[in-house]
Amino acid sequence: MWVDLFPVGPELPPPVDITPRQPHKYFLRVVVYNVFDAPLQETSVVSREKMSDVYVKGWLQGTNYVQKTDIHYRCMDGDVNFNWRLLFPVEVIEAEQVMLVEYKEHPWSLTSTQLRRPPHLTLQLWDNDLISRDDYLSETTLDLCRLPKPAKNRDDVGPSQVPQMMTETDANSVAVTFLDDDTQSVNLFEAKRVYGYFPFIRVEEGVTYIAGKIEMELEVVSEEEAKLRPAGQGRDDPNMNPKLPEPDRPATSFLWITSPWKSFKHILWGRYKWYCITLVILFLLFPFLFLFFYSLPSATVDYMLGIY
C-alpha cells in the first residue's frame, strides 16, 4: 500500500499518481542465420560418420508459444544454415523491466491471471529423429533487458557472454562468472536491434561448457512499426526487413526417406562407388559365366568324343 502523512494545515500537496503502469505491445523478431560447432549426436548407419539433423526451438519463458526453425538434415561438420525468422508478441513494462503474461489457472476460469516476469528468451538446439524422440543438444537463455554483448565473429564467443558460466576448477569447487556490470550487457528495448554471435551451453556432470555458437539478429518493434516494416515468419511473405534467402546447404542435406535417388547419389555413390561398379559388372557377367560353366561339361565330352 501507499501511505502519506502530512502535518495539519490548510493545504495539502497534490496526490502522487499511483496508477498502474500500462505495458507496451511489441513484436520480438529473432532471425536465426547460422549455428556453428553444433554437437554431432548420431552416427550414420551407412557412412559411419558423425551427424545431426539440427533445428532451433525458441519461446519466451512463461508462455506456451513455441516456434521452430526448419531442419538442416545431415549436418556433418557442425555448421548449420537456417535463415529463419521467429516472431513473438510480447507486452513489456520498460520501467520495471518485466513482461506481462496472461493465462487461465483452470480451463473453466472466467478471468485471466496476469503474471509479471523478466523477459527471458530461451533458444534450444535439437537433433531431429524420424522415429524416436528428438535429442536435446544445447541451449541459451537471454534476458532481453540485460543481453550479453554479442561477439563480432564466432571465434570471439566465450564464457564472458554466459550469465552463469561454470568451469571446473578442481574436484570440489566451481568458478562462477556473473554479468553484474551494465557495461557488459545491452537492453534490447533501448537498443531496439542487436546482431552478433551468442553461445549455446550444455551441462553435463555439473560442468557447463559451450556447445554451439549461434549467429542471429534480435529486434523489437512496436505495433505501429510492425505495420510499416512487416516481416513474415520463417521465410514466408512478406519476406523483408530483412529479406531472408534460401539457406546455402550442402547437397547432402535432405531427408533420406523422401529422396531415394539423392540418398544413393550423395551417400552411397560417393563412398562406395567402386563397390557399386564392381557389383554391377559381376551382375552383368553372371549370366555369361553361368552359361559358360553350364555348357562346359557337355562341350568337353563332345570334344573328347570327336563330335566336333
TrEMBL record:
GO terms for cellular component: membrane. InterPro entries: C2_dom, C2_domain_sf, C2F_Ferlin, Ferlin, Ferlin_C. Residues 8-158 form the C2 domain. One of its GO terms (biological process) is membrane fusion. Its main location: membrane. It comes from the Eukaryota. The chain crosses the membrane at residues 272-294. Keywords: Membrane, Repeat, Transmembrane, Transmembrane helix. It is a single-pass membrane protein. It is found in: Membrane. This is C2 domain-containing protein. It comes from Petrolisthes manimaculis. The lineage of its organism: Eukaryota, Metazoa, Ecdysozoa, Arthropoda, Crustacea.
